[in-house]
Amino acid sequence: MTEISLFSAFVMGLVGSGHCLVMCGGIASSLQLAQTKQSAFVTTLLYNLGRLGSYMVAGALVAGLGAAFAKQSTLFANTLNVLSGVFMLLVGVYVMRLAATLNWLEKAGKWLLWQRLVQLNKYLLPIDRKSKALAYGALWGWLPCGLVYSALTWSLQASSSLSGALIMAAFALGTFPAMLAVGQSAQVLSTFLNHQATRIALGNIFIWYGFYLLIIATDKLVH
User: What is the pTM of this model?
Assistant: First the structure.
């Protein structure tokens, strides 16, 4: 799986979960309204499992496409390595909120895909069955998100569709601790992850990892 390991993808999800709380936290919270504590957790779990499933499908599709092109050109494969490094730098700046480096990507995803998929909401609301919670999560897994798209650049250079799916599964699992938190614990976690000092520290992790990927990719291009 090249320099991108499943553990790295998991850490990316874990580190970026503060952004997930902003993007999807409200959706998850809305599913918990008017439910018992136990049923709220089950609903939230199903929602996130649906989201994980969509991430895996996207990872498999992107990896399959990338693998097909990579077989035709070594230069293409090395270019993907560079692309992954660049996106890590963009994610780092994005997480630190120094600049909206990924907004253009989210706008493109909204225009190309999300405007059509969101219309399926009418068939799933209200969430009165477990199957609807799972399907609702699968639908919202396609919500335009710069962090998810950046993770997909890793899947793009995976050796197979299965590897791409596993990378995105690991990324999704990294977001689970934050997304499964409910009530006061979710509020405390959100406050911590979105604190300026936390965002700067986590953003630097992405930036340094991005430089690492670029160094590896540049070495491959030279040799």
Answer: 0.84
